[in-house]
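note to self: the first set is below, dont mix up w the second
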Amino acid sequence: MISKPNRSPRGPILPFLLLLLSTADASHVVSGTTARLPMSLSTVIQDLEAEGASYVTTAAFLTSQSVRRSTCSSLLRSLFSISGEGDHDDEVIYGETTAFGKKLDDDDDDEGSDADGGGSGVAIACPSRGEATVSEVSSTVVACGGTVVYVADEVDLGRGEGLFDALGPAVERLLAARAAAESGDGGGGGGTTLKHRPSTLIVVFTGAASAAEIESSRRLFEASAAKMLRSIIQPVAATSHRATKLSDVFDRIEYVSSNEKDVDMQLCPAGGKVGRKNSPSAREPAEVAGSVRTVVEAGLVENVGPMVEMAAKVPVKQACPRLMGNAVDLAAARVLGPLAKTCLEECLSLVRTSCGADGKKVVPEFGSLCDASVSRALRDFDAAASKTKRFQKSPVAKRIRADLLENLHSELSDVYDVQVSALQAAAFDAFRARLNKLRITPNLANDMNDAAKTSLDEFATAAKKLRPSSSASASWTGLSDQIANVRTKFARHNAERLLAARASGQFRPVPRKGVTVGMHWLLPKPFGNDYRQEPWLEHTADDLVFAPVDGVTDVGGGDVRTGDWRKGVVPAPTSGEMMYLK
């Protein structure tokens, strides 16, 4: 009786414990980080090593342009089997998490498994589209050894645009880093770790489900990739050949649908299980962390601008791709950088000779001076650059010329602001001198307004000649704003001078004239009823008597004395005659 009750609950407890053990040993997210890429991969690798991972595989999760943010978030979780039930699954949020680590399930039956029981893991970098720069994405792909999980949207596949906004520069940077590693130059960002590190590209099609749809999408993707490889700049070296198809860049390429699960287990370039110890993509945590450190030390923003600035002290305002291994581009940066500096200095020297060291000497034709100086600087630059025909097609040479033109207008805009300030001061002095010549009369306010208008017209005419005719001056301070500022300054000065003159008693405005208001009242019948305006009085019992102007004798003397004759007189508007009723 004692043993039986103790055996009954033991049955369901054992499977539950086995389930817990299997869950603990299954693949699970170890940690996530929001630090900047590719440095954040180092944090994830350290966490995987702390969890006992002896080998780590890295990959970058990228998407094409038309993949929505919500789709990116759901695919990131489904492709890498992040169910949300793990302790750290909530740390993987697309747009916030830049990298996360996942400890893989150890297979004890696998001959290639680690005998020491260390296990393996994957570190996934997930730069957010629109937030991470192209340089950060490219450096992250290099730090991951070229292994990429790429989501291609069906819209981008159909129109052939937006597929390689991030992947194209990453491939270009990856090829340059590999060429630098092969040549022994560690400046490419990959160091020696890229020499024998195979890579995998897994392309996920969002609009394909069946095998036929995947095959159709694959053909479109490879055709677009071939165009991309022809357009990017690839390193020129005797030991390397130009990549014309994706297989020249990646050791293994897989095309899957968006319904695929456990994509992280397919990252092995040899096609086997990525968790195996002898997987070509698996590296020790120290080696992977070294690759990340090498990329970080090479610089996150890879451009030729710092090279030109160090060589020529010319501020480069636009970033252009750093082309490792291209002798023409490097020569263009080395030769044309100092030349751009010389042209810039000569142009500014010519302008400052006319404007003075501080630029406050007003040059009436400053705009024409700027046009001539810029044209001369560009002409000298083009003449020197054209001596080397190889520079004509170099993107670095074109970018240095564009930077030179922008820097010329940027420097001249500062001198232009000083010129306008000096012209405003001169116009205000001329305005005050014109006011001092005015006599204090009752019309002083009108005279001051006329003086302000005349001075403002002179300033506007002179200010137009200070602006160059080139379209680059459109970014300078607007002429209308400058005229408005001077107009406000003149009006304020006039108001102050009038108040001072009125307070001193010297100025008395013209007294205002009185306003006369007249009111007219029309009496319709001032002399009684008009016979012609009363139709119902046409037949009257009285006799109508006509009295001429001088026929006053028709009125009797008695009527005059009593005044009754006025009651019988009615007006005759058509003549001076009068009619009255007898």
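second set (the one i keep forgetting abt)
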Amino acid sequence: MRFQIAIAAFAATTFTTSSSSSAFQTPLHSPIIAHRSSSRRRPSSNAFSSEKSAILRSLLLPPTTTTVPTPFAPAKSSSSAPLRAEASSSSSASSSSEEDDDVVGGTTTTTSGTGTASIPNEIFNLVKSIVGAGVLSLPAGIGAFGNAPSAILPATLLIGTIGFFSAYGFSLIGRVCSYTGGQSYRDAWSQSVGDSTSWIPAVTCTFKTCFAILSYSMILADTGKALLSTAGLQTTRTAALLGITGTALLPLCLLKNLSSLAPFSLLGIGGMFYTTIAMAARYLGGAYKLGAPAVKGSKVAAVPAGKYLADVATNFQPRFGNLGASAAMSPNTFILVSMLSTAYMAHFNAPKFFVELKDNTIKRYNTVVGTSFGISVLLFALVGSLGFLTFGSASSGLILNNYSGKDALMSLSRVAVAVSIVFSYPLIFAGARDGWLDLLKVPVDERTDSVLNKATLAILAGVTVVASQLKELAFIMSLAGATLGNALIYVYPALMFRSAVKGMGEKASKGLKREVPFAMFSAGLGVVMGCIGAKMAFGLL
């Protein structure tokens, strides 16, 4: 049933670019890793627009040396390094510090670094990172437990609640980087929990990226088939996917320099902005509403069916019943919860957002986090509600599948979605490929063009075969969210935060110490949601 594709219309009027920042910055949807260098340096303001294969390596492999422009640079060791404490006592339920400064041993010092990105710039890029392909699967997530319009009420509450805890986890990662000097997800883990176990988030990020490209291939199979059908060409999912993979994905994934694809990252935002408007137009216009005959002996007239309803396959036509808000108590609700864990996923890039922020105090960083996740919550609730209110429990995992192939408005949306995925695919694929090479311990200097080409062919072939056979996108979304997503969003950040506070010793404020139980509650919540969500995901097969 479902997956994610870029939505997100964060008003361009709120996006201001400085002369040193590019407007065409790649969306950081996937666990990507930055190149290891001989020394650590703060990324430039164009770091977000660098090719994604470059980002992936630093997430999995911390730089070989540490250069933190503060007197609190942590010492390298297998255990947690000397850490900094926040100035103010944070509330146990709050992820933000009320002060801009940190305090260590009674000496106050700011945490600002050398980043140059403004708050509006970071908000725009973080919204781009959060609002990815998973948003178009949310109507099906609501339909998994309800079939009456009132089901959107608990669904919206869940979207907001999961959004809050996801934002909290994102905040924790940035704060751990502030305390330890970490500049990647793996580096933050190494500096707080310990270097000996840093392979754990590395493996998680790699597999999460693999799930992402698998889902993208599944979406392209469905979208390609639908577009060809609109053009009068009948084909199968497999044939459509093989055609797209051979003519577009393979050549793009074989590219060694991906920087030229950066401008296409904005297609995701534009495409989903258009899709959201189109969905609203079709719902409000009743283009897919069910018809009803006239009632004999009464003044109730017949209700004509929507303009495009007859062109929709029976299993995709609107289906409503009496399972409304109360149905949220059903275990099937965890299917939506698991999808949201994937939909909100951007946490592997939290360190980059913290490091890149100009005057990166914790307070300014949390302003970025809170605003970005707030916007994303609103967008998720809007798209999920529009799709569900139009098709009810018949909502497909890729909601575009529900719309008629003769609907020009939605066909244009399919084109926008397909183009966005095709050009985003190699950026994410580079992360998966480099992640596997890192895990297989292939030295960077041995990654010749021949090795990269062979790895590309092997991984892409495997993903294409699996994607051609799997049709339940809901299963992929739910399983990835329940396992990998919950770990990266809830569990790992809490463990890093607890270890960082413990490493501060007596320098940690009372507020930080009081917050640790809340952070661990968040981790426990993630574990519970993961276990139940994984079980429910397998039930979709």
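remember for set 2: The CA atoms of residues 132 and 387 lie 16 Å apart.
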